[in-house]
Sequence to fold (696 residues):
Amino acid sequence: MKADLLHQNERVRRTVCREPEAAYDGNSRQSIGRREFVRRAVQLGLLPPAAGVMLAGCQRAGSECAGPGGESDRITIRFVGSAMNNPFWDQIQRGAESAGADLSGVILNYVAPDEFSHANISALIKSTVAAKPDGVAIDYRGRMFEAVTQQALDSGCAVQFYNNYKGTDSSDSRIVRLAKTAVGLDKYQAALRSAEVFLPTLEPGDPIVLFNGLPDSPEHLEIQTAYMKVLKDAGWSDEKIEVFPVTLDPAENYQLMKTYLAAHPTTAGIICWDSVTGSAAARAKSEAGMNIPTMAWNLDRTIMRAISDGSLNLTLTQQPFLQGYYAVTALYMKLKYKFIDPPVVDPATFLVTRENIAEVKELYAAGIAG
Amino acid sequence: MTRIVGWLFNHRETGPLIGLAALGIAFQLASGGKFFTQPQMSAVAALSSSVGMVALGVTILMINGEFDLSVSQTFALAPIAMAILVSEYEWSLSVAFVTAVAIVSMIGLLNGMLTVLAGIPSFIATLGMLFIVQSVNRKLAGGTPVELFDESGWAATLLGGEIQDTPLTAPLFWMLAAGGWLWFVLERTRHGNATRAVGHEQGMVARAMGVSVLRTKLVNFVICAGLAGVAGCLQLVNFGSSSVNAGRDYNLMAIVAAVIGGTSLFGVRGTIIGSIVGAILLGTLKSGLVLIGTKGEYYAGLIGVLLLAAAVVNQWAESVRDRGGR
Fold:
């Protein structure tokens, strides 16, 4: 059972969606000429970035900039990330860029906002779509991205969703279809799966703390909700579960968590769902001399060391490298081979414990686990 | 008695010191005697020393009439550079430390030149620099932490050591030492006089007195960036790891510490000791609220409320002092 859970990463779901009325029309992709490009950029007030894009295009694509309306075999793919300065998003980027390098003729450009916010991501998608790439990978997170996704689809740009399966509630059947054929991880389910392994290490009803490093992120709240549900279903009362917001600064988190544990010495378990809070929690509880079960999400060197020395029981990797890689591959299939729908890929949850940390370290060193 | 009260009112540090003492007593009572204990004081020291060191540089610059918003990124850049030099190029810790601080000091110099020579308001110049340095940090470290867990020897002890079972850590010691040095510079040297003069009336009075506005500001920008770099490196050696997210809000927190400590946002007025007290007050707030069991959803809000209360008390003390002065 445990072994099964530990290797769920090998599970790749493949489904073929058969909804002809919503099929992606690969032939609708348009190439626009340089003059048209500049004209549109001026209209949109995007001349400086457009100049940069054209320059980059000339440097990289050569003949693509040969003249107005010039066709080429190059496929330009824009990958819009959701945040920077984060091991998870670094791995997404690495996966996307690796796919871009591996797939013949692909020119891949990865962009992400400085700070995570729906507004920032949406603005970046907008400017990306305005640059008229052949395809764009979007971390679709709800209705707020609907208009910009429609804009991309209307302009003939191929779209691929990744990182989750949001969008099935859209009134636009094209978006529903994209949501159903995303490359992504169902974070709610991932939290439940990790809880299945983690909960047996706890005594039901003992005080538990959930350290949320990004309390304003809906995605983090969704994961928080999943853990709250699974704890309550297992017999924990509201009073015995505390959610405490922390920051993304590891040193500050460590001090705050140490203080928290001093103030709550009966705490019997710690749940975190990113590496910054997870590594700080592992150190704080060790420093406080508390041998209590602790779990995290994602991977970095500090997390792997904590798993090895036993201060962290478990971490969950969302296989971000695979997500980035498969999302670009899916766009490539749509653009190069006119696939109506590429297969759905769920990299699933890969749970890392002391038993498999040696293998994971090798993957991490190779830059493909995070 | 009246003379003592008068003397106290004449010092800007008095208000924040009283606030700090009141806060400490309140947390001690509310936590059932757990606040004034070694682990708790250790947490306060750790939470205060980094932002305190950054606040010292920011204070001298604010007295000078300028801001440096890039300190949060120079704080992150120095440890990243140091860790890379040590782990990838096998430099000694001491040489890597000096080099990293020198690099970020150059950023301070650049900030100063943009402000003084190019005439760009420091608010804009250093904000631009913040983004540039942020990009450099990402290029160097990406999202993964840099680490220095296995360092030992005199340099590691000097920069990041701690005396067991006490809250005394090297970063705290260095913050106090830097505070002492800057206090001396500000209160007892020509450069200190020049700093206050330059902060007055946009440097017009200073120019009339023959003070070099250019040199004074450049030196203070370098001090500010250099101290942010030192703070980042000390935290790396003491804590063992750092990342691009380290100190991400220190540019604002340092200003908050300085203002709570009695430094004016409009230049000239300000004290080094006040800024140290302001930083300790911030650390006390963050740590004390967790210790007394503040619910997570109220934590940030209560920090805001107490900071505003501290600012109001300061403002009141300032107005009383001004009336006394007249």
Remarks:
- The two ends of chain B are 21 Å apart (CA to CA).
- The interface with chain A takes residues 31, 34, 39-40, 43, 46-47, 50, 131, 134, 138, 142-145, 147, 149, 235, 239, 241-249, 286-287, 290-293, 295-297, 299-300 of chain B (CB under 8 Å).
- The CA atoms of residues 44 and 284 of chain B lie 5 Å apart.
